[in-house]
């Protein structure tokens, strides 16, 4: 019993597994849907090894419409199924669909357990004394030397953070969807757990006899963190912004450390070396994906050919009209948007009459009489992506006040507590890769069925309380948010906030930040003491200062 009291992680993992299994059983049909065409791409990969989609003649057309990691995992599952039984060659077979859903459910279950465990260990490290504080002689942080009470408080806070992740409604819903949220959140949680290990090692004092071993340790820590961040980028390209922010933070830390004279000051050379390893790994993975797209598609696409559509979805005249007067709590009905966008061969969508009067109207056609000659080929996904970008930019410039209101709307959807009720008129989602230039029939993450009012109320109440705890935790941490230990969490939140200021946003988009938010919430609720750190911008060691203790 002592083990379970001091290390409750196994109990939390067991409860998480039972809860996820229950959710999978209740939401089993959700694993059959393929709203973002990841399984369609996986079928082609399993059969030919090419990241692409099957054309009408049976050939596989390479695509960069979706990031490669999640469909690659699905392709591995399908390849194993085909190896075991040739009957699984037919992707439409009922038996094959059942086995695939079981395998994906198992994959999502394991990823969910990994997310919970990584959150627990990250919280434990956040709440233990960093090496530079030990050097300064602080003794009030929750370490073994501080006594069992501090240790129990730290374990309780870490267990609470892990529990928040285990019961999070967004993550539970995502576990029964063929979408990237479960994988992206797991990778984000692992990266969050690796970052403080690296920064603690960088800040720890090193004697001459330990130098060689410490350099190897730092190299491996930076390498593993870079690999995880690279995989996260291949899962969701927006993670590259997170990587850049972390590299920039390390460089800034090194620059400020260069001007210090204290004995405990971290070595700027070591910090820059760690930043260099991260940049090298990130650049290698980014370059590999970009080179693949250059060879297969003829264009150096570093993200996906889906970004223009995602930008346009949240920045078009029809959506701007919605944010000005749409009903509160009811999702935008994109039916009219999709009807217009699918008729873009009739008129130039960059011209406002296309949206206000209709694609087949005389005003829309007259706005650009040469559109028939200028429009991009319908099967050129890169050209279609560029057109979507240009259309979104034209809409923003034509209605900048509408754009600003839509930015506020995206912030509220990303950070708000209330799920939106889907409109009754919205059609069910369709595959976005039936051909490279088609688009889904509902915004990403929009549920297809009406949600019970009680479910919306319960989720809203939960996230309202959770948000208050997050704010309380951030308040308790205070200016320590600028210190290396918390930098990865802050950078992750900033990257998501920055990206989804412009691109389509909803509750689902904040899934990767749930582990970090859960730790903040646990800190806000628990009374475990926080270790004092010295911020990179500080010029003196304040670990013993009474006005920084909580």
Helix content: 55-70%
The low-pLDDT segments are 1-6, 133-145, 424-442, 533-550
Order of neighbouring strands in the sheet with most strands: 1-2
Number of H/I helices: 23
Strand content is under 5%
Query: In whole angstroms, how far apart are the ends?
Result: 31 Å
Taking all Cα atoms into account, the compactness measure Rg is 25 Å
Kindly state the mean pLDDT as a whole number?
A: 83
Number of individual domains = 3
SSE pattern = HHHEEHHHHHHHHHHHHHHHHHHHH
The dominant shape is globular
The secondary structure category is mainly alpha
* Number of strand segments: 2
Described by strand count, sense and barrel closure, the largest sheet is: 2 strands, antiparallel
Topology at a glance:
Blueprint: H1 2-6, H2 9-26, H3 38-48, E1 52-54, E2 60-62, H4 69-84, H5 94-126, H6 131-136, H7 148-166, H8 169-174, H9 181-203, H10 211-235, H11 239-258, H12 268-297, H13 307-313, H14 317-325, H15 335-341, H16 353-356, H17 362-367, H18 371-374, H19 381-398, H20 400-415, H21 453-477, H22 484-502, H23 514-525
């Amino acid at each position: 019993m002592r083990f379970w009291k001091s290390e409750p992680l196994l109990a939390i993992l067991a409860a998480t597994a039972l809860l996820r299994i229950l959710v999978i059983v209740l939401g089993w049909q959700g694993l059959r849907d393929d709203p973002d065409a990841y399984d369609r791409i996986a079928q082609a990969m399993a059969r030919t090894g090419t990241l692409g989609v099957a054309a009408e003649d049976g050939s596989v057309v390479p695509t960069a419409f979706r990031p490669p990691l999640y469909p690659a995992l699905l392709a591995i599952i399908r390849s194993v199924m085909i190896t075991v039984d040739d009957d699984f060659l037919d992707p439409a077979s009922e038996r094959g669909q059942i086995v695939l859903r079981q395998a994906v459910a198992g994959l999502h279950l394991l990823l969910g357990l990994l997310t919970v465990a990584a959150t627990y260990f990250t919280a434990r490290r956040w709440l233990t004394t960093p090496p530079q504080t030990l050097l300064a002689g602080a003794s009030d942080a929750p370490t073994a030397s501080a006594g069992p009470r501090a240790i129990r408080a730290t374990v309780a806070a870490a267990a609470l953070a892990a529990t928040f992740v285990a019961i999070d409604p967004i993550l539970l819903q995502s576990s029964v969807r063929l979408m990237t949220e479960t994988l992206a959140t797991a990778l984000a949680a692992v990266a969050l757990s690796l970052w403080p290990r690296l920064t603690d090692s960088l800040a720890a004092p090193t004697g001459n006899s330990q130098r060689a071993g410490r350099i190897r340790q730092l190299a491996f820590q930076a390498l593993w963190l870079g690999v995880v961040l690279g995989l996260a980028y291949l899962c969701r390209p927006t993670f590259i912004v997170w990587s850049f922010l972390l590299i920039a933070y390390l460089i800034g830390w090194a620059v400020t450390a260069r001007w210090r004279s204290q004995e405990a000051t971290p070595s700027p050379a070591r910090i820059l070396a760690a930043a260099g390893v991260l940049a090298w790994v990130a650049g290698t993975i980014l370059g590999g994906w970009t080179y693949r797209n250059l060879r297969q598609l003829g264009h150096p696409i570093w993200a996906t050919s889906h970004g223009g559509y995602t930008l346009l979805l949240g920045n078009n005249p029809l959506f701007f009209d919605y944010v000005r007067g749409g009903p509160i709590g009811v999702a935008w009905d994109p039916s009219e948007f999709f009807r217009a966008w699918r008729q873009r061969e009739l008129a130039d969508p960059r011209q406002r009459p296309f949206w206000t009067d209709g694609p087949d109207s005389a005003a829309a056609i007259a706005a650009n009489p040469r559109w028939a000659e200028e429009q991009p080929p319908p099967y050129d996904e890169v050209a279609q992506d560029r057109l979507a970008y240009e259309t979104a930019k034209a809409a923003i410039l034509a209605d900048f006040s509408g754009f600003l209101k839509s930015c506020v709307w995206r912030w509220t959807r990303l950070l708000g507590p209330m799920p939106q009720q889907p409109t009754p008129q919205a059609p069910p989602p369709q595959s976005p890769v039936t051909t490279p230039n088609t688009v889904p029939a509902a915004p990403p993450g929009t549920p297809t069925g009406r949600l019970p009012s009680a479910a919306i109320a319960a989720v809203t109440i939960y996230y309202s309380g959770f948000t208050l705890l997050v704010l309380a935790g951030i308040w308790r941490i205070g200016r320590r948010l600028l210190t290396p230990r918390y930098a990865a969490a802050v950078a992750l939140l900033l990257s998501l906030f920055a990206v989804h200021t412009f691109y389509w946003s909803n509750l689902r988009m904040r899934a990767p930040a749930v582990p970090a938010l859960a730790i903040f919430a646990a800190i806000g609720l628990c009374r475990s003491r926080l270790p004092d750190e010295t911020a990179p911008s500080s010029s003196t060691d304040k670990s013993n200062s009474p006005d920084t203790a909580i």
